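Module 6 notes. Inverse folding takes a fixed backbone as the condition and produces residue identities as the prediction. Think of it as a translation problem where the source language is geometry and the target language is the twenty amino acids. Below is one complete input and output pair. Work through it position by position during the lab.
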């Protein structure tokens, strides 16, 4: 899948993207940790390698989609999603699940995130997903606004208690 847009060029991720995916994955971890350090893990010296290698391991999976957004030949964002079956833990039927959408802060507010979001949703629909689900951190108001504009509604609230 490839899409051209003034904001970015989208394409399927490849093994050559592992370093950029790791860098952006660490940014995702840091963003969440900054929002709620009691709930979300901190970035460590191994986060970039671990996250990049995790996403690399997903590339060959038939029901997984990892897309990257490029600007001027540099990966500036990615989306990680999957078509999943029934999930009894979350009490939902088969769905397209958007796990991650991340954009480098230097490239935000230029349409990159919206493009990744729209194209990922379209790809999940093309793969047969009739319900789409995602989660956002409680404090990630910008992501929540994007989701609401795209037609998502709140359905589940995670609560955490620290002992």
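Target side of the pair, the amino acids:
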């Amino acid at each position: 899948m490839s899409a051209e847009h003034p904001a970015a060029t989208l394409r399927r991720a490849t093994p050559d993207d592992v370093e950029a995916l790791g860098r952006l994955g660490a940014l995702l971890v840091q963003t969440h940790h900054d929002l709620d350090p009691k709930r979300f893990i901190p970035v460590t010296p191994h986060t970039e390698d671990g996250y990049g290698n995790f996403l690399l391991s997903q590339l060959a999976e038939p029901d997984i989609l990892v897309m990257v957004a490029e600007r001027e030949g540099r990966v500036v964002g990615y989306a990680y999603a999957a078509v999943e079956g029934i999930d009894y833990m979350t009490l939902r039927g088969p769905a397209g699940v958007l796990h991650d959408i991340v954009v480098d802060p230097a490239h935000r507010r230029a349409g990159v995130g919206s493009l990744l979001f729209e194209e990922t949703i379209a790809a999940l629909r093309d793969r047969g997903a009739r319900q789409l689900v995602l989660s956002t951190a409680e404090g990630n108001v910008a992501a929540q606004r994007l989701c609401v504009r795209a037609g998502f509604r709140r359905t589940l609230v995670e609560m955490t208690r620290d002992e």
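Reference fact for the lab report: The mean pLDDT is 93.
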